Amino acid sequence: MDARSPRNSSGTATPGQRRGADHIAPDCAGQNFYAIDRGLRDLLAHYLTPDDFARLEPHFDRLGALAGNRLDELARIADKHPPVLYPRDRFGRDEDWIDYHSSYREMEQIAFGDFGFHAMSHRAGTLGMDRPLPAVAKYALQYLFVQAEFGLMCPISVTDTSIHLIRKFAAPSLQEYLLPKMLSGDVATMWKGTQFMTERAGGSDVGTIETVARHEDGEWRLYGDKWFCSHADAEVALLLARPEGAPAGTKGLALFALPRRLKDGSRNAYRIVRLKDKLGTRSMASGEILLEGALAYLVGKADQGLKQMMEQVNLSRLSHGVRASAMMRRCVNEAMVCARTRTAFGKTIIDYPLLRRQLLKITLPSEQSLSMFLFAADAMDRANAGSKDAENCLRILTPLLKFRACRDNIPVATGAMEVRGGNGYIEEWVQARLVRDAHIGVLWEGTSNINALDIITRAVGKTRAHKALQAELSKLLDEATAIPDPFRDRLRQTLDRTLTFAERVAAEPSQEEHARQAASALYHIASAVLMTSEAARPGTDARRALFARLVLEHRLSVKDPLAPKESGWEHAAAEILFSERKVAIGEIAKLLT
Ligand SMILES: Cc1cc2nc3c(=O)[nH]c(=O)nc-3n(C[C@H](O)[C@H](O)[C@H](O)COP(=O)(O)OP(=O)(O)OC[C@H]3O[C@@H](n4cnc5c(N)ncnc54)[C@H](O)[C@@H]3O)c2cc1C
After folding, report:
1. C-alpha angle with apex 581: 578 to 586, nearest 5 degrees?
2. pTM of the predicted model, to two decimals?
3. To test the ligand 1 pocket, which listed residue (157, 209, 447) has its Cβ within 8 A of the most ligand atoms?
4. Nearest residue CA, atom 30 of ligand 1?
5. Could you read off the pLDDT of 564-584 as tens digits, one per residue?
C-alpha cells in the first residue's frame, strides 16, 4: 500500500480519509473495471461465441478487479520508481543490467505469469483455453490491464508480436531455439521480446538505417547504434540492419533476431549505453543500444526485412489503439466519479451544463475507440480464419485506430484532469500520469502523419482496402432495421461522401495535406456506423446510437461557431447517457432524427 491510499488493515477509511471525503472527490480505487464497463460487456457477449464468453468472463472479471485494485497500486508505485541502468559490475566488466522496482516485477508476474498475455495468441493452455485465445479476447484483456498500467504493456505486446514474427518467418532451427523460451510462463527464466528499428538518422524514414550486418565466419555480426529501444533489456530483440553490399533504402534491410545472452550464457556484444528520461511510460526502460559485433540470426529472407517487420508494426499499432482506448476509459471513469461527487456553488458539478458538455466530449472518443478496436479485433479473428475481405478491412482499420484513438487520448486525458480541478494536476492522482502517458501514442510505431499517409496513400490508394470496409459497414447498416430509416440514410450518405473524399485525396498528390482530415473522417463515420449497428442488436444498450448521432453532428457536419444550433436533443441525450440505465431503441428513436 503506498502513501496515497491510507486505508487501515481492515480496508475501512482512516479518520483522515473521512475528513477529506467531506470535500475531495474520490477516485476509482477499489472498482472492478470490467464490472463497471457496460459497453465492453455487451460487445464481448456479441463478438465472442457463447462458449468462449462463458469460459473467459471470469478472467475478464478477475483482471477488471485487479486493475482497479492491486495492479493500480503497483502501477502508481512503479511510475515513481523508474528503472535504473547499471553499465558495469563491481569488477569493472561491461555487464550492463537494468534494475526494476519490485512493483514492476509483481506486475510482470501478473501479466506474463498469471495471465500469459504474451502466449495467449500462440498456444493452447492459457486461461484454461484448449486453443489460442481469439483476438477479441486478447485485446479486451489488454484494454482492462492498461486501465491500470500502461508502461508494461509495451514489453507484453512486443513479446507477443515478436513471437508472431518468429513463428511465421524464422527457420525451423531458430524457432526451436527461441520459441520454447519465449512462450514459457515462468517469469524468472522466460525470454521476452522487443523491436529495435529507429536510429538517429530516422524513425519514420527507416530506409536511412545505418546498422550493418556482416557475415563473419558463417555468422551474422551487427555493428551500429539504435537510438530508441524500448524494453531495452529484452532477451530477444528483432531488428532491422543492412547486410554488407545490400542496396540503399528500405529494399536493402534484413530482419534479425538478436539474443541478449549467447548459448554459453555470456553477454552478446552489445551494450545499453543510456536510458531515456521520458515524459511518460516511466515504469518501462527505453534506452540506446550500441551494437559492437553482436551475434544475430537472420529471420526470413534477407530482402524482405521491412515487409516482415511491418507485420510486427501493424500488430503493435492495433495494440496502441487499444491502449489509447483503455486510457480514455480510465479517464472517463475517473471524471464521472468526480463529477458525481464534487460540489461547487452548492450543486454537484455534473449538474452544470458546461461540465456536462465537457463530460460528453471526453466520453464520445472513448466509446468510439471501444467500438473500433473490437471491430478490428473481430476482423483479425475472421482474417485468421481465412477471410480475405476481413484481412482488407483490418488493413485499414489498424492505422485508423492507431491514428485517431492515440490523438484523441491527449485531449481526453487533459479534459479528465480538468474535471478533477487542481487535484488532477497533482501526481498523487492518476490523472497526471494519464496526461503524461497519453502523448507517446502519437510518436511510436509511426507518428500521426505517418499513419495518416499509410491510411490514405497505401490502404486507400494502393490496396483499395476501404472498399472492404465500405462493404462491411453498408451491410451492418442494412441489417440495423431497428434504427429509424432517416438516420440510417444519413449515415449512408455520409459514408459515401467520406469515401469519395478519401479517394480524391489518395488520387491527387497535391491533396496530401488533407490526409489527416480524410483519415479522421473515415474513423468517425466507421465508428458512427458501428455504434448504430450495436445499438440495434437485441440485448445491447441502445444508447450507443446517441453517441453515433453526436459523432455525426460534431465530427462530420458543418457548424457555424457564431451561431450554434439549438441543441435540445443533446440535452435530452445527455440526460439518458448519464443515467447509467440501459435503454431500448424505442426509447431513443426520436432523438435520432
Ligand atoms: C519513448 C519512446 C520509445 C520508443 N521506442 C522505440 C522502440 O522500442 N523501437 C523503435 O524502433 N523505435 C522506438 N521509438 C522511436 C519512434 O518510433 C520514433 O521516434 C518515431 O517513429 C518518429 O521517428 P523520429 O523520432 O525519427 O522522428 P522523424 O521521423 O524525424 O519525424 C519528425 C516529424 O516529421 C514528420 N514526418 C516525417 N516524415 C513525414 C512525411 N513523409 N510527411 C509528413 N510528415 C512527416 C513526423 O510526423 C514527425 O512529426 C520510441 C520513441 C519514443 C519517444
Report:
1. 105
2. 0.96
3. 447
4. 202
5. 877 789 999 999 999 888 899
